[in-house]
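Record ActR/PrrA/RegA family redox response regulator transcription factor, 187 aa.
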Amino acid sequence: MSAEEPTGAMVEGEDTSLLIVDDDKPFLTRLARAMETRGFAVETAESVEEAVAKARARPPAYAVVDMRLGDGNGLDVVAAIREKRDDSRTIILTGYGNIATAVTAVKLGAVDYLSKPADADDVFAALTRTSGERAAPPENPMSADRVRWEHIQRVYEMCDRNVSETARRLNMHRRTLQRILAKRAPR
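=>
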């Protein structure tokens, strides 16, 4: 991650509070340092519990939240932030990107969804993008395996993450589905 040197862009505005939530300590430290050099007042959290407590005490103007944390789901943090401050610009950052969770994150109030590895420039651009701006389209289309994986994830989310119900709807054995869900997304 080329997070150390900013590209010259700085955050503007009165409230530059930023909450970064990730359980990967080295990544969290690098991203926090990079965002501080870009003008943010950074606070960090390594768990859902810690992040929700910080969000309720001092709701941030900006937030970067990892989807999968050791003690739960980052979407709970997004919901807690939105509960206290509906103008907060929150993005989800994850190594397990899929369409279903991206849609859920946006419905809960996230403004963007980035897949890891994302560098500080990507995070900064997502946080500061105006509502009229659009992100550049991806250079490589999804593979057939990725499309299948995305469909499974979408049904899984529709079933409120119930493996048995998802397997029934997909006409798939439950153990097979569990193995698929435990793996990383195909490229």
